[in-house]
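Field reference: "sequence" (input) and "structure" (output). Example, Glycosyltransferase:
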Amino acid sequence: MSDIEFAHLVRLSDDTGLHEHADGPLPRREHGYCLDDVARGLVVLHREPDLPADLAALAEHYLAFTAYAQAEDGRFHNRLSPDRRWLDEPGLGDWWGRALWGLGTTAARSTTPAIQRAALECFDRGAHHRPPSVRTMAFAALGAAEVLDADPLHASAAALLGDITSYIGRPRTDENWPWPEDRLFYANAALPEALIAAGDLLGSDEVRDDGLRLLDWLLTVESRDFHLSPVPTGGWFLGEPRPAFDQQPIEAAAMADACARAYQVTSDPAWLAGVHRAIAWFSGDNDLGSLMQDEQTGGCYDGLTPAGPNTNQGAESTLALLSTRQHLRTLLRSTG
């Protein structure tokens, strides 16, 4: 049985998938579902070492949703109406990248062979595409890393993961701004994490070290007084005011993921500081000293605004909290 509270994720879910939005703790059923969140759910659930029966059933619902969303050519729909009609055409947006991340994680970590095979078939169907967005590619690369870690001879996963370097490029020579983009946007830590994974699994010290350098810089600029201070939804560049709002839980979760991978690859305990800052952000060690989780429901607030938390508890934020708490559990077990 998991020691992490999944009650709110269950509350947001049904036999179709995962409701995207909430009004406080209650799912906004009229807003329907999106693959983006369902795929995140696959990642989180399959990171659990021993899924109880109810969560295993939930993971199978999420996998069925993801397979249903996939077109024959490997692209994916994203938005499903409450009456189960697709509201968009299949595409290669962030949801495609997150779908491959979720499918790769399921294929690598599920303990049910039939589920592994089904997830891998969907992954392989989509892995030949190359999206226009660097973040979309980074999410997909993290799924490829899961597959490749489980099967080092998996050709399409190796090709997908290897191509992340051409998307991100090398760090800039400017020590104040080595970031390969002109501005920080969202889920920023996924980019260096993808490089670290590619360098580690494909045997390139240069690519791994580029990722570590970018992550170290990112953790520095996204910290204030030794607590995490994520960039706002509008992005950030040097000289713009900080702290800035609204801050999103996905930023803390991405930082926890990336620093945990850096620690796994390097065994350098310095990376644990980033994981701890991300965990502490949810517990109130943030720019406003505000608790970002509802301890009664198990949900996470949707963002940190200048006036405090946005107390709606949607799927993206709740999954960000759950994934970060998974790193806390791993750290507690590994250090003590």
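Residues 315-335 form the longest helix (21 residues).
The chain has two domains: 32-166, 169-336.
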